[in-house]
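User: My instructor asked us to take a sequence, write out its structure as tokens, and then describe one feature of it. I'm not sure where to start. Here is the sequence I was given:
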Amino acid sequence: MTTTSGNASQIRVAIIGSGPSGFYAADHLLKQREPEIYVDMYERLPTPFGLVRGGVAPDHAKIKSVTKLYSRIASHERFSFFGNVEFGVDVSRYDLSDHYHGIIYAVGAQTDRKLGIAGEDLPNSYAATEFVGWYNGHPDYHDYDFDLTGIKRVAVIGVGNVAMDVARILARTPQELYGTDIADYALEALRQSEVEEIYVLGRRGPAQAAFTNPEIKELGELADADIIVECEDASLDELSAAHLKKARDRSAIRNVKILQSYVDRGLTGKSRRIIMRFLVSPSEIIGGDRVEAMRVVKNELYLDENGNLRPRATDQFEVFPVDMIFRSVGYRGVPLRDVPFYDRWGTIPNERGRVLTKHEGKKRLPGNYVVGWIKRGPSGIIGTNKPDAIESANCFLEDLALGDALQPRDTRDESVLALVQSREPTFISFDEWKILDEIELQRGADRGRSRVKFTTVEEMLEALGKMKALAGAGK
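Assistant: Let's start with the prediction itself. The structure tokens for your sequence are:
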């Protein structure tokens, strides 16, 4: 933390979470010339960057390069990072209200939506979030065990980018994955994989699929996996064709064209097959001690009262034999201690980023703001978070000018530092994160890989020589 002049009234903002939306909010605030704003970012893990580190697929290194921008933001003299400090456990909203004019929640959507069908909790039925966190080396998922030996058929439920990532990682060869930053244990498990078929199931048609053009194109370029799309699944119903023509959605049109290009490709002798199916929804997961099959219902599309295309079940059913299932039907946020939460949507209730005390009310929680997925729900790509974050940051600036921000008791650097040190003596600064970063990169270089990650907090603290402090704190 940079030492300042000791001005107890300097303008200070706390950001909870260190993903893209948090960094975009920090950047906008730090760029303000009048007033000058100090930004402290709190992250429960020792490592920054949120889903860019723990969610973006390891074979998408180009997307991960956005962290260079976030590191430049973190180098600002009025920015501080407090890693390994958990909001609601180590520090509370009331603690921070004593030291900050504004608190911005940027915690994302940390868990998954459920299907709500029989058999969903059988062994070998997982949330995609668990698998993604596991292969990305996220400490929360380090102890998961995805044994892919004896697994021949896998179903991925959903057709968003996360579903595409899961299918692609399951279909890639160990050679394709070796040079990435995939967790060591995941690389070994995938090396032992016996998966032959991967079903990818969408409840609506190909024109409504949420994946992006590059994601579906990648599935047709894998070294040892064929992609299978039947003519029926690539064809548009009348409603979809009319809607696509009217909307002129270039991305959706391109998605359909890519899918249709796979129809006549046929099998090429590769050892794995990705089978795309549309207009089907799982109705039951079948099994005894573990997943054995999945019953799906055929859907049809209809126009609802708002003119939106929706799926509805028909009386046609089908049973797929499968050994493992990953549901990827959306992320949802989790409540934060002493912060309002709207359980139905899994978001913090807000108006343009200003936190409200309840979803259907107008009463605000002064000085509290929200950005990203926990603000609007899990939608958009990384760049979508920038205008979203700027909107919320501007709300804080407006409130500050009107005297409607928090009225902290003491905003000095030394006062904030004393609070954090008293609650979490093993907090990680951004400079210490850069040390971890260099160690991971060097471990990767030594083995011909891009990076070898630390996958537990204990490993990270030990690498920084902080395990003694951890033991002394009795944690």
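For the description part of your assignment, you could build on this observation: The longest helix spans residues 385-402. Try explaining in your own words what that tells you about the chain.
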